[in-house]
Each structure stands twice: as structure tokens, then as C-alpha cells.
Amino acid sequence: MLVGAAQVTALAALGGRLYYLQVVEADRYTTLSNENRIGIRLIAPRRGLILDRFGVKLAGNRPTYRAVLVPEQARDLIATLDAVATLVPLSDADRRRVLRDARHRYSFVPVSLRENLSWDEMSRVEVNTLELPGVSIEQGLIREYPFGAIASHFVGYVAVVSEDELNGDPVLELPDMRVGKSGIEKEYDVDLRGVAGSKQVEVNAYGRVVRELKQDDGKPGQDTVLGIDMAMQDFVTRRCAEFPSAASVLLDAWTGDVLALVSVPSFDPSSFTSGVSDAQWRLWHTDPYRPLINKAIAGTYAPGSTFKPMVALAALGAGTITPQTRIECHGIFYLGNAAFHCWKKGGHGTLVLREAIKHSCDVFFFETAHRTGIDRIASMARRFGLGGPTGIDLPAEAPGLIPDTDWKLRTTGIRWQQGETVSAGIGQSYDTTTPLQLCVMAARLVTNRVVIPRLLRDEGIVTGGATGTVGHDDAVGAFDELNIPEKHLALVVDGMKAVVNEPGGTAYAERITEPGMAMGGKSGTSQVRHISQAERERGVKKSLELPWKERDHALFIAFAPVSAPRYVCATVIEHGGTTGGGGSAVAAPICRDILREVQRRDPARRVPDRLFTVADAGEKR
Questions:
Q1: Average pLDDT in the 264-289 region?
Q2: Whole-angstrom Cα distance, residue 498 to residue 354?
Q3: I want to staple 151 with a disulfide (CB 3.0 to 4.6 A). Which of 135, 142, 147, 238 is the partner?
Q4: What is the DSSP letter of 481?
């Protein structure tokens, strides 16, 4: 009876325990079992495409193989790395990165061992994964840039997430996750990223994946359409590539679309996708031509004579000169004991404003600036987009500098000097601008609107015409009025037409002769060092005696067609290229070719409307 009672008691206890485990605690143990058997892995979303205005792919994704390591599944991390290194090359930098990532990230998050594995490398790792705990091969997507260096400065690039960018989001710790570091990739990074997906996988006791149970691909990133015309981008790049260092911007003044944004030399953005070597990084940073800098938006240069239209408008607005005001140029302007030289030895004689713009007479603008004052000049220049960000949707835009009396006193503690106003009258002194700002200035000159440049094209992909199907009234009307008197603008723009299209104009040799395509413009040559009187007399300024970095920059701004300006262009050749030439000789031919090409691609845009005429300015030819 005692033995029987003990047996019944033991059986009842066993039955009760089995009931408790299998029925009462069933959900808990099912969950624990599934956690041992089923793993949840995040999937990096497919990054959105970047397209030009016609749907040409500027940034996309391509399949790739990579070897990854889950730190918590590796028995000995160092030994595992040594074993992998016998199959595929692992550099010391790769080892340091893997160990660093394993320390700073969740132990269950895979760490990338090697990206872009070839088929042979992938195969060698795959057949040895049984001896490599925690190591597996994954297929993913890697960013590709079909146009490489041609579009790198505005498209930008993606790279691995840095420690500073980690914010606790496990998606950012995925081995194939990339984030935008520059250009459009950075400006619209959140939209391009998309939403991460996930997959459920069944694993065995060793952590190896047995089968995939379920997968949610997440939401891919948004495709982004830009206003860039890659055919024009390629043309401008090839045109500028003959110079060691240059920048050029082509803008649709009616819509604000940037059609081309070029900075040379450039770099291959694909280099950053898998990581740049120390040697390559040092090479870029020691290059005197600064390939990593987007000179179109971040290169700052004294505007030189391209600034003279701002001085003219400020003087006309203040009433310090009129269209009929005559100023005599003998080649030198005296202010006290200081002498300021005109670029033309012997001078231009007596000129009115239109002729002064046409011949780019320095003495005329020395006198005009002196009469007008720096504060009025600075105020006018800022209305045209100089001295501050233009509003373009790109990071790292340089603001430039348009000084005034308050700035000088606040910055240096010294009062503004009259001689500095004289220098500012020809775009020297403290003035600095970017090529994009000069292009925006030209766009506002020919439209009298507050044109704001943009890369993102809200309207989507163009389906007709070379630059879109937007009408003049709708496009220009999208921008606020600049409210400059039309007669003042007409006079200045007419002078810029004469620069290119009338004999004696500083850029007459670079005119566009095709009917209906004529351009107007303004040249500029900005000094980067003071030229002594002795050097001036010897002609050093125009020779190649000086080192490359001490030669003048060559600038040109232009618009076309003159009958109804729509396209504007600004080009800067650093230090005059290899010939040391000025704006008319070096930069003007590039603007000419660019404006001629963009009109050839869009002949329907050459309409007969006339925005400005000589009669409007009260002048006679």
C-alpha cells in the first residue's frame, strides 16, 4: 500500500508538472523555443534612384556579395578573422574596423568582413562556413554611379555609417547600410533611404540558417528627379576639362533649374561605397587642384569686373550717375596720394555707362563706386544673390562675402576706408563670390525676379522638349519681383550685350554668330595678389612668369538668347588655366560654347520676344 501510494503520488506530480509545462506555460515555452529556432534579421531598404530631367540614371543599385560575421556566434573573433584571411584578403584596416564595430554595436548585428566579393571569393567562403562560426555570405545591393566623376559633385556619394551618426537605430548598424555624405545623396538622404524590411529565418543549434520562413522587403526609398540635363553636364565637363581647375554653372533663369553644375577636377564617388584607402585620401587632400571641393558652390573668388553691373545699378538707383553721365578715363584714378590703374594703359577717354560696361573701364567704375559708397553697392549686390547662400538644395554652399562699413568695423575694429570702396567698384577688396552666385546674379539681371536655383525637379521627368514645356509667364512668375527699375536693368543688360556683340567689346571675339542665338555677358579678371608698379610696367600680370597659384582668375557671366534671355552661365577658370589668360580670353569661349550648345539642343526656345531694348534704356545706338 505504501509503495502503491508513493507511485500514485509520483505519477500525479509528474502529470501535474507535465500539465503545467505543456498547457499552462505552453505560450511561454513556445516563444522561447521559437527564439532559439527562429531569428529575426533586418534588411536594409533599397535606396531610391537619382535621375536627371529625362530619366537618365545618375545613381542606382547593383547586386553584390559580401561576407558578414555575427560576433555573438563567433567563438573566437581573432581566430575567425585569421581563418577568413586565408580565404579572402583582409587588410589590417579591415581587421581594425571589424573589431571596432563588434565592440560598439549589438552583438547580434552582423558586421561586414569584406564587400564586393568576386564569384571565386564568395565560393571559397561559402564552402568553408562550417568551420567559420558566425560567418555567412549575403547578397545585397551596392550603390553605383554610372557617370562617375562627371556628376559626383552634385550627386554626391554614400558611405558606411560613422560612429557619430549612430543614434540607436539598429538599421544604421546593418553591414550594407549606407547613408549620404555629400551632394543630393546627403540633402535628400532620409527620402532616399526608405523603410527597412525584415526576414524570419530558421536556424539550427549552431546558428546556421536552415531555411527562410518569411520576408518583408520594407519600403524602397523614393526616386529623385533632378533638373540636370546630363547631356549638357557631359558637354560642360568636357569643355572645362582642358584646364587644371575650373567651375561652371548653367541655369534656366525662368524656372531656376540647374542644367549643369561642373567642378574640375573631380573624383569617382564609387570609391566611397566600400571605403577609401588612406593612400587615396591623402592623394586627394594634397592635390593642389582640390578635387573633393565642389568649386561651383564652395569655391570663392573675387568677382572682378563681373561685379560692375552691381555698381552700375547701385549708382543709378542712388542717382549718383545717370545714363548720360560722362566720366573721363586717362588710365589712372587718383584718391589722395593713392593711384588706381585702369586695365587699359592710357585710358578709354570719355565714356557714358553703356560704353563703360562695353569696354569694362576700371576708372569709370572707380569714380562711380566712390560717388555711390560701399553700403549702397553692398545692398544692391545682396539683392542679386551675392554675399549669402543662394538657397540651392545642396549642402556645404559657401556664402561668399559682400562687405560694408558695419562688417568692416565689426570684424576688424577698423573703420572702412574710401580706397576700399574704389577697389570694391571693380570687384576686388574683400568681395568674394561663388560661380553659382554669379550665375544667379545674371539670372536676376535678365528677369528682374528673385530667381532661386534648384536641383530637385518637382515636376518629375520631362517628356517633351529639351528643357521642359513650361511657358515663360508661368515659370518666371513663380519667383518674386526684384523690383529694380526696368529702365536701369535694360541699360545695364544692353551694355552687357554690347560687350559681346559690338566691335570694341571686351568679348567681341567670342560672340555667337548663329542667327537667334546671340549672347550677352561680362568678363572679369580677379587678382589673387598685389601687382607692384614695377611688375605692371614689365607686364608680369599678363605673363606666365608667376607661379600658377599667383596668377589671376578668369571669370565670365553670360546669358542667351539676347532677344529673350533664358539660359545663363557663369564660368571661373582658376588662375587663368595653363595660359594665365583673363576672363574674355579664357572663360568667355566656354560660356559661348555652352550657351550655343544648350540652344542647339532646344531650338524651340529661341522665341522672338524682346525683354529689353535700347529704347527702353533711353539710349541710341
A1: 87
A2: 8
A3: 147
A4: B
Domain boundary among 225, 245, 275: 225
DSSP, res 161:
P
User: What phi, psi does 588 have (nearest 5°)?
Assistant: -60, -40
User: What does DSSP assign to residue 274?
Assistant: S
pTM: 0.83
Per-residue b/e over 553-581, b at no fewer than 16 CB within 10 Å?
bbbbbbbbbbbbbbbbbbbbbbbbbeebb
With vertex at residue 480, the alpha carbon angle to CA 476 and CA 486, rounded to the nearest 5 degrees, is 75
Nearest to 436 by CA among 401, 500, 385: 385
Q: What is the mean pLDDT of the chain?
A: 86
- Spell out the alpha helix ranges (H) of 512-587: 533-538
Q: Identify how many contiguous H helices and E strands the chain contains and give both numbers.
A: 22, 19
Cα–Cα distance list, 223 to 140, 155, 184, 391, 461 (Å): 19, 13, 12, 22, 11
pLDDT score of 620: 30
Identify whether 305 is a catalytic site residue: yes
Q: Copy the grid coordinates of residue 219.
A: 519600403
Q: What is the pLDDT of residue 73?
A: 81
Per-residue cell: 43? 534588411
- Greater confidence, 79 or 488? 488
Residue 26 resides in a domain: no
Local structure of 144: helix, strand or coil: strand
Confidence of residue 473 (pLDDT cuts 50, 70, 90): very low
Q: Is pLDDT above 70 for 204? A: no
Segments forming the whole domain that contains residue 49 = 40-225
Share of the chain above pLDDT 70, in %: 87
* Mutual angle of helices 362-372 and 308-318, in 10-degree steps: 40
Is 303:587 a contact under the CB 8 Å cutoff?
Answer: no
User: Is residue 305 a part of any domain in this protein?
Assistant: yes
Q: What is the dihedral of CA 407, 413, 419, 420, to 10 degrees?
A: -30
What's the rounded Cα separation, in Å, for the pair 450 and 458?
Answer: 19
Catalytic residue among 136, 245, 305, 526: 305
pLDDT at 530 over 90: no
Q: Is residue 612 part of a domain?
A: yes
Which burial class, exposed, middle or buried, applies to 344 when counting CB atoms under 10 A from its CB (0-12, 13-18, 19+)? middle
Q: How far apart are CA 355 and CA 497, in angstroms?
A: 11
